[in-house]
Write a structure and sequence with these properties.
ribonuclease T2 activity, RNA binding, alpha+beta, RNase_T2-like_sf, Ribonuclease Rh, Chain A, globular, two-stranded antiparallel sheet, hydrolase, six-stranded antiparallel beta sheet
Length: about 240
Protein backbone atom coordinates (compact mmCIF):
# COMPACT_ATOMS: atom_id res chain seq x y z
CA UNK A 1 0.00 0.00 0.00
CA UNK A 2 2.88 2.36 0.71
CA UNK A 3 4.26 1.84 -2.78
CA UNK A 4 0.85 2.46 -4.37
CA UNK A 5 0.40 5.68 -2.39
CA UNK A 6 3.86 6.82 -3.39
CA UNK A 7 2.95 6.12 -7.00
CA UNK A 8 -0.19 8.24 -6.75
CA UNK A 9 1.83 11.08 -5.26
CA UNK A 10 4.38 10.89 -8.06
CA UNK A 11 1.68 10.86 -10.73
CA UNK A 12 0.28 14.30 -10.02
CA UNK A 13 1.07 15.40 -13.58
CA UNK A 14 0.53 11.96 -15.07
CA UNK A 15 -3.22 11.55 -14.84
CA UNK A 16 -4.77 9.62 -17.68
CA UNK A 17 -8.26 8.85 -18.96
CA UNK A 18 -8.12 5.72 -21.12
CA UNK A 19 -6.11 2.56 -21.66
CA UNK A 20 -4.95 1.51 -25.10
CA UNK A 21 -4.46 -2.20 -25.79
CA UNK A 22 -1.98 -2.39 -28.66
CA UNK A 23 -1.51 -5.36 -30.99
CA UNK A 24 1.23 -5.31 -33.61
CA UNK A 25 1.89 -7.35 -36.72
CA UNK A 26 5.42 -8.84 -36.49
CA UNK A 27 6.07 -8.80 -40.25
CA UNK A 28 5.49 -5.04 -40.31
CA UNK A 29 7.64 -4.52 -37.21
CA UNK A 30 10.54 -6.26 -38.93
CA UNK A 31 10.03 -4.25 -42.11
CA UNK A 32 9.90 -0.94 -40.26
CA UNK A 33 13.20 -1.37 -38.45
CA UNK A 34 14.81 -3.05 -41.45
CA UNK A 35 15.65 -5.99 -39.24
CA UNK A 36 16.18 -9.42 -40.73
CA UNK A 37 13.94 -11.03 -38.14
CA UNK A 38 14.30 -14.77 -38.18
CA UNK A 39 10.93 -16.52 -38.27
CA UNK A 40 8.81 -13.78 -36.62
CA UNK A 41 5.42 -14.96 -35.30
CA UNK A 42 2.76 -15.32 -37.99
CA UNK A 43 0.08 -14.00 -35.65
CA UNK A 44 -0.73 -10.66 -34.02
CA UNK A 45 1.20 -10.20 -30.79
CA UNK A 46 1.00 -7.77 -27.88
CA UNK A 47 2.84 -4.48 -28.06
CA UNK A 48 1.55 -3.14 -24.78
CA UNK A 49 -1.17 -1.68 -22.59
CA UNK A 50 -0.76 2.09 -22.52
CA UNK A 51 -2.46 4.83 -20.47
CA UNK A 52 -3.26 7.62 -22.88
CA UNK A 53 -1.58 10.59 -21.23
CA UNK A 54 1.18 9.34 -18.99
CA UNK A 55 4.56 7.65 -19.09
CA UNK A 56 7.29 6.72 -16.60
CA UNK A 57 5.17 7.63 -13.59
CA UNK A 58 7.52 6.02 -11.08
CA UNK A 59 11.11 5.53 -12.18
CA UNK A 60 11.99 3.87 -8.88
CA UNK A 61 9.54 1.01 -9.49
CA UNK A 62 11.81 -1.28 -11.48
CA UNK A 63 10.80 -4.34 -13.42
CA UNK A 64 11.23 -7.65 -11.59
CA UNK A 65 10.96 -10.77 -13.74
CA UNK A 66 10.41 -12.94 -10.66
CA UNK A 67 7.02 -11.32 -10.12
CA UNK A 68 5.65 -12.73 -13.37
CA UNK A 69 7.44 -16.07 -13.54
CA UNK A 70 4.21 -18.02 -13.64
CA UNK A 71 3.10 -15.94 -16.66
CA UNK A 72 6.21 -16.63 -18.73
CA UNK A 73 4.75 -19.34 -21.00
CA UNK A 74 1.98 -16.97 -22.12
CA UNK A 75 4.32 -13.95 -22.16
CA UNK A 76 6.79 -15.68 -24.46
CA UNK A 77 4.05 -16.74 -26.85
CA UNK A 78 1.65 -13.79 -26.89
CA UNK A 79 4.02 -10.95 -25.91
CA UNK A 80 7.34 -11.84 -27.53
CA UNK A 81 10.16 -9.46 -28.28
CA UNK A 82 9.91 -9.67 -32.05
CA UNK A 83 13.26 -7.96 -32.56
CA UNK A 84 15.16 -10.00 -29.97
CA UNK A 85 13.47 -13.40 -30.01
CA UNK A 86 15.75 -15.13 -27.51
CA UNK A 87 13.50 -16.79 -24.89
CA UNK A 88 15.54 -15.28 -22.09
CA UNK A 89 15.00 -11.71 -23.24
CA UNK A 90 12.85 -9.59 -20.95
CA UNK A 91 14.03 -6.13 -22.02
CA UNK A 92 10.83 -5.47 -23.95
CA UNK A 93 8.64 -6.30 -20.94
CA UNK A 94 10.88 -4.18 -18.71
CA UNK A 95 10.38 -1.23 -21.06
CA UNK A 96 6.62 -1.66 -21.19
CA UNK A 97 6.32 -1.89 -17.42
CA UNK A 98 8.56 1.06 -16.59
CA UNK A 99 7.09 3.34 -19.27
CA UNK A 100 3.43 2.34 -19.20
CA UNK A 101 2.78 -0.11 -16.39
CA UNK A 102 3.88 2.25 -13.64
CA UNK A 103 1.17 4.64 -14.82
CA UNK A 104 -1.53 2.04 -15.37
CA UNK A 105 -0.88 1.05 -11.74
CA UNK A 106 -2.98 4.02 -10.64
CA UNK A 107 -5.86 1.55 -10.94
CA UNK A 108 -6.21 -0.95 -8.11
CA UNK A 109 -6.81 -3.66 -10.70
CA UNK A 110 -3.39 -2.94 -12.26
CA UNK A 111 -1.33 -1.88 -9.24
CA UNK A 112 1.34 -4.57 -9.45
CA UNK A 113 3.45 -6.08 -12.19
CA UNK A 114 1.56 -9.35 -11.85
CA UNK A 115 -1.81 -7.59 -12.23
CA UNK A 116 -0.65 -5.40 -15.12
CA UNK A 117 0.77 -8.20 -17.27
CA UNK A 118 -2.04 -10.60 -16.35
CA UNK A 119 -4.71 -8.09 -17.34
CA UNK A 120 -3.03 -7.38 -20.65
CA UNK A 121 -2.88 -11.10 -21.42
CA UNK A 122 -6.54 -11.36 -20.43
CA UNK A 123 -7.50 -8.50 -22.78
CA UNK A 124 -5.51 -10.11 -25.58
CA UNK A 125 -7.28 -13.46 -25.17
CA UNK A 126 -10.72 -11.88 -24.81
CA UNK A 127 -10.27 -9.71 -27.91
CA UNK A 128 -8.95 -12.76 -29.78
CA UNK A 129 -7.93 -10.62 -32.73
CA UNK A 130 -6.21 -13.37 -34.71
CA UNK A 131 -9.28 -15.63 -34.74
CA UNK A 132 -11.68 -12.78 -35.40
CA UNK A 133 -9.74 -11.52 -38.42
CA UNK A 134 -9.69 -15.03 -39.87
CA UNK A 135 -13.45 -15.41 -39.32
CA UNK A 136 -13.97 -12.09 -41.07
CA UNK A 137 -11.91 -13.31 -44.02
CA UNK A 138 -9.16 -10.77 -43.38
CA UNK A 139 -5.86 -12.56 -43.88
CA UNK A 140 -2.36 -11.50 -44.90
CA UNK A 141 -2.48 -11.17 -48.67
CA UNK A 142 -0.35 -10.03 -51.57
CA UNK A 143 -3.38 -8.00 -52.73
CA UNK A 144 -4.83 -4.99 -50.88
CA UNK A 145 -7.69 -4.32 -48.49
CA UNK A 146 -9.56 -1.07 -47.93
CA UNK A 147 -9.09 0.50 -44.49
CA UNK A 148 -12.80 1.25 -44.24
CA UNK A 149 -13.68 -2.40 -44.90
CA UNK A 150 -11.38 -3.62 -42.11
CA UNK A 151 -12.74 -1.03 -39.68
CA UNK A 152 -16.35 -1.84 -40.46
CA UNK A 153 -15.72 -5.56 -40.10
CA UNK A 154 -14.10 -5.09 -36.69
CA UNK A 155 -16.90 -2.78 -35.51
CA UNK A 156 -19.45 -5.44 -36.51
CA UNK A 157 -17.80 -7.84 -34.04
CA UNK A 158 -16.64 -5.65 -31.16
CA UNK A 159 -19.27 -2.91 -31.27
CA UNK A 160 -16.56 -0.25 -30.97
CA UNK A 161 -14.14 1.24 -33.47
CA UNK A 162 -10.48 0.36 -32.94
CA UNK A 163 -7.60 2.45 -34.21
CA UNK A 164 -5.57 1.12 -37.14
CA UNK A 165 -1.99 2.26 -37.57
CA UNK A 166 0.11 1.92 -40.68
CA UNK A 167 3.58 2.40 -42.03
CA UNK A 168 3.60 5.12 -44.68
CA UNK A 169 4.52 4.11 -48.21
CA UNK A 170 8.21 4.58 -48.98
CA UNK A 171 7.52 5.50 -52.59
CA UNK A 172 4.65 7.45 -54.10
CA UNK A 173 3.30 4.43 -55.95
CA UNK A 174 3.46 2.15 -52.91
CA UNK A 175 0.67 1.43 -50.43
CA UNK A 176 0.53 1.96 -46.66
CA UNK A 177 1.22 -1.16 -44.60
CA UNK A 178 -0.93 -2.33 -41.69
CA UNK A 179 1.16 -2.36 -38.53
CA UNK A 180 -0.92 -2.04 -35.35
CA UNK A 181 -4.50 -2.41 -34.19
CA UNK A 182 -5.48 -0.71 -30.94
CA UNK A 183 -8.49 -1.18 -28.70
CA UNK A 184 -9.40 1.44 -26.11
CA UNK A 185 -10.73 0.90 -22.59
CA UNK A 186 -12.16 3.17 -19.94
CA UNK A 187 -10.77 3.16 -16.40
CA UNK A 188 -13.61 0.75 -15.64
CA UNK A 189 -11.98 -1.57 -18.20
CA UNK A 190 -14.87 -1.32 -20.64
CA UNK A 191 -14.29 -1.12 -24.39
CA UNK A 192 -14.81 2.30 -25.94
CA UNK A 193 -14.43 3.75 -29.43
CA UNK A 194 -10.85 4.78 -30.06
CA UNK A 195 -12.31 7.53 -32.25
CA UNK A 196 -13.90 9.13 -29.19
CA UNK A 197 -12.50 12.71 -29.13
CA UNK A 198 -11.73 12.24 -25.45
CA UNK A 199 -9.31 9.43 -26.27
CA UNK A 200 -5.86 10.94 -26.58
CA UNK A 201 -2.91 8.79 -27.64
CA UNK A 202 0.52 10.45 -27.55
CA UNK A 203 2.31 7.11 -27.81
CA UNK A 204 1.78 6.49 -31.50
CA UNK A 205 5.52 5.91 -31.74
CA UNK A 206 6.42 3.74 -28.81
CA UNK A 207 9.92 2.34 -28.45
CA UNK A 208 11.05 -1.24 -28.67
CA UNK A 209 14.37 -1.34 -26.90
CA UNK A 210 17.55 -2.54 -28.49
CA UNK A 211 20.46 -3.36 -26.23
CA UNK A 212 21.65 0.24 -26.26
CA UNK A 213 19.22 2.64 -27.88
CA UNK A 214 15.45 2.90 -28.38
CA UNK A 215 13.88 2.40 -31.77
CA UNK A 216 10.59 4.10 -32.63
CA UNK A 217 8.07 2.69 -35.03
CA UNK A 218 7.20 5.26 -37.67
CA UNK A 219 3.49 4.53 -37.56
CA UNK A 220 0.56 6.87 -38.11
CA UNK A 221 -3.21 6.47 -38.05
CA UNK A 222 -4.06 4.68 -41.30
CA UNK A 223 -5.54 6.86 -44.01
CA UNK A 224 -8.69 5.88 -45.83
CA UNK A 225 -7.88 3.88 -48.93
CA UNK A 226 -5.94 0.73 -49.75
CA UNK A 227 -3.71 -1.00 -47.23
CA UNK A 228 -1.27 -3.88 -47.51
CA UNK A 229 -1.53 -6.59 -44.85
CA UNK A 230 1.79 -8.35 -45.54
CA UNK A 231 2.17 -12.10 -45.28
CA UNK A 232 5.07 -13.31 -43.13
CA UNK A 233 8.29 -13.51 -45.12
CA UNK A 234 10.02 -16.86 -45.29
CA UNK A 235 13.49 -16.89 -43.78
CA UNK A 236 16.33 -19.21 -44.65
CA UNK A 237 18.73 -20.81 -42.21
Amino acid sequence: MVRVQALKNLCGNHEWKKLIMVHHWPTTVCKEIENDCRDPPNYWTIHGLWPDKASECNRSWHFDLDEIKDLLPDMKHFWPDVIHPSPNRSQFWKHEWEKHGTCAAQLDSLNSQKKYFSKCLEFYKDIDLNSILLKLGIEPEISYYQIEDIKNALVSVYGVEPKLQCLPPEEEEEIQILGQIEFCFTKDLQLINCTDPKVYAPFLQDALLTDETPMSLGLYVCKDGPVFYPPPEKTHL
